[in-house]
Amino acid sequence: MHNIYSKKAYGFISLLGFLAFFVSCGKATDSQQDHRPVDRLAEQYMFHLKKSFLYLDSIPDERDFRKVENYFLLARKHFKKAEPILAFMDSENYKFLNQPNITKVEEEDFTDIKIKSPKGFQVLEENIFADDPDWHLIGKTAKVTSKRIQLVHANSTFDFVKPYHVLWMFRDGIVRVALTGITGFDSPVLQNSLTEAQYVYSGLKTTMEAYEGHFNDKGLYQKTMKKLDAGIAALTGDFNSFDRYGFIKNHTQPMLGVWNEVVKDWAVNFPFDEAIRNNATSLFSDQTFNISYFSSENFGVLDQKKAALGKQLFNEKAFSRSGDMSCATCHLPEKQFTDGMKTSLGNTRNSPTLLYAALQKGFFYDNRSGSLEGQIVDVTTNEKEFHTDLEHLQKVTSRNEAYVEAFKDLYGDGTVAEGDIRNAIASYIRSLTPFDSKFDRNINGQEQTLTADEREGFNLFMGKAKCATCHFPPVFNGTVPVTFKESEMELIGVPASNDTINASIDEDLGRYHVYGTKERKFFFKTPTVRNAALTAPYMHNGVYETLEEVVDFYDRGGGVGIGIDLPNQTLPTDRLELTEAEKAALVAFIESLNDEVPSTQTAKDKRMAVK
């Protein structure tokens, strides 16, 4: 993707941004005050979908570039107003319409690998506002995008929609704006993110207007609307200089509190928790996430006793064939659960932190495992790690009376099952999500110690530097908000050595080793940036020793920027043009993400150790 745009676009963007809130969303609902709220919601949704595809239909036969740009911006405006409902009601079609302009690879198994060319609004944006537009591709993409919206329009039903669905839609809309909407994630060329976020908030206002009758507390309704208006007013200014920290702290976070008030006022009971807990009041807290959502097992609240048992097993060296390696050998608590080495002993890849590892949908650098329990199988059988089997883990555990009693108490079985062993270790790893960094405490209002550089670094991370388009907050890893269903992999072009003159790609093929898909060569999972200041060296091969070197690599445009030929690089190849002060601010922000990690063993832990 290229960070280029036509200056001619600015006039249209500014005009649309100015007119957006003075033009009626349509008279489809004006005379429908007596309708059920869900009917009004459906009418408004269908109206915006129709307007969007009609504007797209005007693009293919138009050769006046100003009109084409205008049609795109108007289609996008209505798409964004429908976004909270569309993304919730039909997530797959939403992803199709809003996908990035990169080749999509779907690998279900060796017999089901699909390579798909990108479609949708981002493809249109990058081509319409290019220096040399490809009119054929623009027309073709506009038609495909329109047809998909028409398909959604023709097949949408609101028969199942209940008040709790509406509240989920609403919260998702608020959270999506904060975590991806204001970052340029889906407006990479125009960076029209702030205006588009206003459209989303405007759509959310319409939703609340439809459900005004559900409010028992009319003052709360007014409070909700005023909060939305305040959010709209705040979403203004220049993309690069926008204060994202201030917006999230002063608008998104308080809006979560108001949302919880609305839930109580409507007397809504949710049937289950999604990725974000239904009672969450912050996006940056150890109470934010429903940990079981990221597991194949729905266990509700994490069992701390299982986590404590898992902690002992995590440190159990007898699990390895040699008897001198445990999980903690490569994941030392005092090193933020890494080992501080370029590559782990006997391995070819750097040891990643286990902090926040539970908040992912893929494991290992190549995403070859889909769960923590599955990851443990791989470690157990890997000849460069434990080099044994699951039966050996059972035997070791069964020989220790303290372990046997603990498993009997926690899992209710007279024998120790290997699945329970893996679950206990996984439970410990799931407990390693502290959200107790300086940054967390500040954005949650617990202290006021964040420096100007740290705050500026966050704003750069979320904006100009484009970091957050791959390292998504609040975990700052590759698990995509707001559904958190996918942990993304990227090709950024990590070199074999720290050489910007004669750079060559590192020979590790990454994801390619899993399925042999050539389009996946050199793809690796996006790790968390939390605690990165304490987990050097960096990248899958440990090529960079400092955060400053990492920032410089990204500032240059990744592998392509240092001269490596990588046609499939997903990282934008243009230089970021960061100043030295901006680079230093980025590092300062990353340093503010450090957590305090408790000592590895308590007295109780030691009593359970194998004799």
TrEMBL record:
Signal sequence residues: 1-28
Superkingdom: Bacteria
Subcellular location: Cell envelope
Gene3D superfamilies named in the record: Cytochrome c-like domain, M75 peptidase, HXXE motif
Key words, A-Z: Heme, Iron, Metal-binding, Oxidoreductase, Signal
Ranges for domain Cytochrome c: 305-433, 452-594
Pfam families: CCP_MauG (PF03150)
GO cellular component: cell envelope
Molecular-function GO term, any one: electron transfer activity
Protein name: Methylamine utilization protein
